[in-house]
């Protein structure tokens, strides 16, 4: 089967980075937004009979999400044999259940739309919850950034490293880091009033004199992370850094990060960075995505990429 690689307009920088790791023909998707806000897409060359890797970054604004849907529909109507959507970050992943009455399950809506327009497979990175995989009747390849982050932490040569999970839900993941790095860990217990607003936090574990590394899957307004950094420093931590896969960074996030005691925030490029900051550093997910694409093309298992470091069967 012949494979082609194409991207939506918002994913151009990441697509260029992925392409550096692959010997793969690049297609061109023309995209235009009309004066009334409607979006038009067209493939500039034939994709008939080919398997298409479509890389999209459908984070806000919604135009990016709709452009992805139109691109998949265009590929199906252009007779692509298989459409593999490479979506490093899936929007609405935090709305995967009804937590109150009369609400939508937005993550399911995203999945239904994607399958209806014709996607055959989805490759994504660090789902907020694995429950989302159950919304899809097509294969979903769920990749993890653990290898990328663990290697970077090792190379940082921190003297007195202590890993911190921002909540009890992240303990399973943080234990994989502990196995690989052989360092102590702590956890932050927090009580939420509502999304993006925490009423109370406390550290469970010893962080005094430690170079703390917080590991999480997503950062949005940065309120919880910055509050955690303040508390960890007050508990006697020597320094605080964070490794977080998806940098949504909305609202006051950048101002909060700049004013916080965080030494560094390391995020991947699953979501395009809106502005530069001396405190924010990108660890590209391009090698991970390229490796997954290469394995799919050659019929190899993605097990080594999809499982967190340290998992034993």
Entry summary:
30% of the residues lie in helices and 27% in strands. By secondary structure, it is of the alpha/beta class.
Give an account of the 3D structure.
Helices cover 30% and strands 27% of the residues. With 313 residues, the chain is α/β, with parallel strands linked by helices. A seven-stranded mixed β-sheet has the order 11-10-9-12-13-14-15, with helices on both faces. It has a six-stranded parallel β-sheet with strand order 2-1-5-6-7-8, with helices on both faces. Helix 7 links the parallel strand 13 (239-247) and strand 14 (264-267). Helix 1 packs across helix 8.
Main sheet: strand order = 11-10-9-12-13-14-15
User: How far apart are the first and last residues' alpha carbons, in Å?
Assistant: 32 Å
Q: What form results from the Cα inertia axes?
A: globular
Q: What sequence of helices (H) and strands (E) makes up the elements? A: EHEEEEHEHEEHEHEEEHEHEEHH
Approximate strand percentage: 25-35%
Can you tag this structure with a few keywords?
313 residues, alpha/beta, 9 helices, six-stranded parallel β-sheet, disordered C terminus, single chain, seven-stranded mixed β-sheet, globular
